[in-house]
Amino acid sequence: MISGSAAAVVAVDLGASTGRVMVGRVEADTLDLVEMGRFGNVPVRVGGTLHWDILRLYRDVLDGLRAAGRAAGPIDSVGVDSWGVDFGLLDQDGRLLGNPVHYRDGRTDGVLGRVLAEVPAAEVYRTTGVQFLPFNTAYQLVAATGTAQLAAASTLLLIPDLIAYWLTGVVGTELTNASTTQLLDARTGRWATGLMRRLGIRPELFGELRRPGDPAGELRSDVYEATGLTGPVRLTTVGSHDTASAVAAVPARDERFAYVSCGTWSLVGVELDRPVLSEASRAANFTNEIGIDGTVRYLRNVMGLWLLQESLRTWAAGGVPVGLDALLRDAARVPALRAVVDPDDPVFLPPGDMPARIATACDRLGQPVPGTAAETVRCIVDSLALAHRAAVADAQRLSGHAVDVVHVVGGGSRNALLCQLTADACGLPVEAGPVEAGALGNVLVQARALGAVAPDLTAMRSLLRATQPVRRYQPARDSGAWASAATRLAGAPAG
After folding, report:
1. Burial of 45: CB neighbours in 10 Å, binned 0-12, 13-18, 19+
2. How far apart are CA 259 and CA 428, in angstroms?
3. Which of these, 237, 352, 425, 430, has the minimum number of CB atoms within 10 Å of its CB?
4. Which active-site residues does the annotation give?
């Protein structure tokens, strides 16, 4: 602590497309966030396998910590969050055995079906409550069965736990991210060792679980040397799944809210006190992930702005000048809902020519094929708003938790067109912001552990409302066009 009621902390917030290092200064009525470093998170394909460039990411983290020390003075704590499911494997000496494989790599193709042929989906869901996605940690490990790397592994660390281990030398696995693996028991909050054994996964790979707010060691001497930070600086466990941190930073007034944590993925759902493990929930492919203070993030993963990001990358690679703001302005003038696609169609998951895939999908569905970049962008944002609508409605129906407002947080909250369309589609007001929700949730959990803010989520969210800008979007009154588009898409032939 720098004083009795203030904290200066660093949030390392690693997203699937970009990472950032932010300094947060927190007091009872103050919450300031300053960017110290922002960097791309660009995967690398080697020998046909898509990897995360984890050593470059770690270097970028150290650079951000160095900048924080120079600009912000003494630092009390550091916290790390990232995307879920992916991991690094350590040998018995604690050395990384190879760059972590990217969840978009094709090694898990067909694995989910093989697993569910052996272990019924209903049984897996009753145990874990996690949405069936082909790249979940469980299926990545099954895909790696028989490899020399997995045979040599002594420890598995999820990405934020790997970064934390390099910073401190302390091994542990944070609970909110562990809940994304489909290897955690949703009722007990402990590793589902029985399921692991049935899948041929060694339970001894998985370390002791720790919760947001728990101490996770002190920075190592070589980290002090590399960054210039002055010790002691503790590492505090935060909601290390970035969505857990983002949902903690939803500036809600009460519990009657839905959220869209909108970035590369759209995580759309509600916050509950207990998991929903019904057969209807499984059929709707909803997930029960652990949030801050034992809450449940009951949500559906929607492919999100990945479709837009990959389209922009494709156009840029082809030499087509693109500017997102201009594209969105042009897209707003395109007639609404001419063509919509299912963002979660598996064809959109891998990297590649996204505009061509969208055009093919529209043609297959008997809809007008986008002929310009603006028409492609309009198809994307209409389709995402339609997916947000379905997820918000399903979350309420399956959980019995009614909502009055949808909070859009994360980078997507800057996309005014998408926010307005989400309000129109859902028939509910949308409150957009904060943009840096993941970093803010990370900062607040650290500050709370240091005693700088009150210990409950309500107080944390009150501080967010008082200090962070939020823009409100009112829905259009007529939602009939959205209902018609949903019916049209639901009745389309399978791809």
Report:
1. exposed
2. 12
3. 352
4. 242
50-90: pLDDT as tens digits: 999 999 999 999 999 999 999 988 999 999 999 999 999 99
Tell me the pLDDT tens digit for each residue of 41-55: 999 999 999 999 999
Whole-angstrom distance, CA of residue 121 vs CA of residue 124: 5
Rg (CA), the chain: 22
Dist CA 409 CA 251 (whole Å): 9
165 contact partners, CB below 8 Å, separation of at least 6: 90, 94, 157, 171
**Cα 268 to Cα 280: distance, rounded to the nearest angstrom:** 17
The SS3 of residue 349 is coil
pLDDT at 2: 39
Q: How far apart are the first and last CA of the chain?
A: 57
Q: b/e string for 442-458 if b means 16 or more Cβ within 10 A?
A: bbbbbbbbbebbeeebe
Res. 263: pLDDT tops 90: yes
With beta carbons less than 8 A apart as the criterion, state whether 223 and 229 touch.
yes
Confidence of residue 5 (pLDDT cuts 50, 70, 90): low
What is the model's pLDDT at position 168?
98
Helix axes 324-332, 373-399, angle to 10 degrees: 80
Find the length of the chain: 495
* pLDDT the model gives residue 494: 55
320: Cα within 13 Å, side-chain hemisphere:
14
473 touches 430 (CB < 8 A): yes
- ∠113-118-120 over CA atoms, to 5°? 80
In terms of Cβ atoms closer than 10 Å to its own Cβ (0-12, 13-18, 19+), residue 466 is: exposed
Residue with tokens 């702005």: 305
Indicate the pairing of strand 173-174 with strand 209-210: parallel
pLDDT band at 479 (very low <50, low <70, confident <90, very high): confident
| Torsion sign (Cα): 66, 72, 78, 83 | negative
Alpha carbon distance 192, 93 (integer Å): 26
Q: How far is the C-alpha of 489 from the C-alpha of 340, rounded, in Å?
A: 7
pLDDT, mean over the chain: 96
For every residue of 90-116, DSSP letters joined together read E-TTS-B-SPPBPTTSGGGTTHHHHHH
What is the rounded distance in angstroms from the CA atom of residue 224 to the CA atom of residue 17? 28
Report the alpha-carbon distance of residue 201 to residue 194 in Å, rounded: 10
User: pTM for the complete prediction?
Assistant: 0.95
